[in-house]
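Example record

One chain of 355 residues, shown exactly as stored in the release files.
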Amino acid sequence: MTYVRNAWYVAGWEQDLAPEKPFALTILGERIVIWRSASGAVHALEDKCVHRFAPLSLGRCEGAHLRCLYHGLLFDAGGRVVDIPGQDLIPARARVRAYPVEVRHSWVWVWMGDAAAADPALIPPAVGFDDPDYILCCGFLDYQAEARLINDNLLDFSHLTYVHANSFGAGPEFAASQPRITPLARGVRVERWLENTYGASNRKSDVPIDAWSTYDFLLPGVLLMWSANYPAGTARRLNHAAPRMEEAIAGLNFTSQAVTPLTDRTARYFFSWGPHRNFGDAAMRDHMMGIAGKAFAEDKAMIEAQQRVIDTTPAQDVMPTAHDRGVTLFTRLVEKLANAETMERREAVAWRSSR
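Predicted structure tokens for this chain:
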């Protein structure tokens, strides 16, 4: 599959990364070990000792270093071997790849491309557990399906009407109406007003409201979404422009979702959700996360079934519908940037070979 490599991929939740406990994860088919030193610094290396290829994730943390517990080679945070028991000479090639890693918004982010191009400013601006305005909870699911299919699902909410009729209680509006979609430099923005509605069946309003939602879907596959309810007529009064969050009357919440490709046919789906503390509490959060958990299971069942059909069907072109504009824009962006990365790598190889 085609994925952008010069991007920050979510490797896990910060609170799940225990100090001095190496953690193994595969991203884009590459085995990675991540660990937090006693000082709190987080590091990421290729999960393979240079000696006999034992996984470093079975190793032992020693300060900012990681020792392979097969034959004892000690690696620094940059991937260089700094100690070989019983041997003074350390070969120059005794090193593994080090990955740029950042902890931000309660997520651990790993840069999978050119380390020299790693720019923390490109980390999607999510809301983390350190944000005092939101009461969040989180989790993740592993999919037996390629990440691209999950991205497609998140870029086309018309499926809510059908896949999530029993969980979110979504009505016909999501399939019957089109959102406003705006291309971004590293993603797309999807905005939608549902006018004069009573809300979903699991959280009905007693009076008609206008429901607003907006999300940015950013590289490599991160959804950041705010939604809220407003008095009926707000959408028309604003000429369907974005409202001010502080003018919401109910339902102001935030959700973040991130899709990390593990291998060609597996992915990990991270999610968080929570209300603004002016519009909810931990009890509401837990109730809604229970409903969301059912919805995420509905998505998983559908997408994994979709993957099984794809795997047993001769290659065919997808027949797009009017709801596929966001999917198409994001797919084209991924292909454009991935092709540019491939060209840059080829030019770098050619330049090195010519010297």
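Notes: The CA atoms of residues 321 and 328 lie 10 Å apart.
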